[in-house]
Design brief:
With 154 residues, the chain is mostly beta strands. The protein has one domain. It has 1 helix and 9 strands, in the order H-E-E-E-E-E-E-E-E-E. The chain has one helix at residues 2-19, and strands at residues 34-39, 42-55, 63-71, 80-85, 93-96, 102-108, 111-125, 129-138, 143-152. The longest helix is centred in the first third of the chain and has 18 residues, at 2-19. The termini are far apart.
Length: 154
Amino acid sequence: MKRMRVLSLLIVCFVVILSGCIKNQPYVTTLNPSLTANIGTYDFTAVTVVPSTVDTQIHDTITGLTITGFSADQTAKNDKIILRINSYKGKTGTFSIVQSQASAQYLHSGIISTALGGIVSITHVNSNSLTGYFSFTTQDGIAVQNGTFNVGLP
């Protein structure tokens, strides 16, 4: 009788332990990076988005952040949007192109159009990703509007 109680108690403990385990539910460890924008009537969607950082000075701790989105459009597969924040400190903020806090370029059919005005904004930073938005106008009058990005940390 005592053995049956102990055996029953062991079975109940075993079932409780197993029910607490995660079964066939993988953890999400990857991001689905994205970068989109409206360029006139064209909707730019990136097939790949590459974030990177570079130390811009040897003695100071100034780090530049670059986010490059390569077009998913097969007819314009060499098109890309490049966003740069000149002094990135790993925090949220809005960075002005006019004040040289940021810069942007739109490359279309091998022609580079550099932004004269606009912003790049980081709205959310967590342990593995950056989220934000951007808009700018290039020196040849191209308006890149309603831009958004979501990328992993470089």
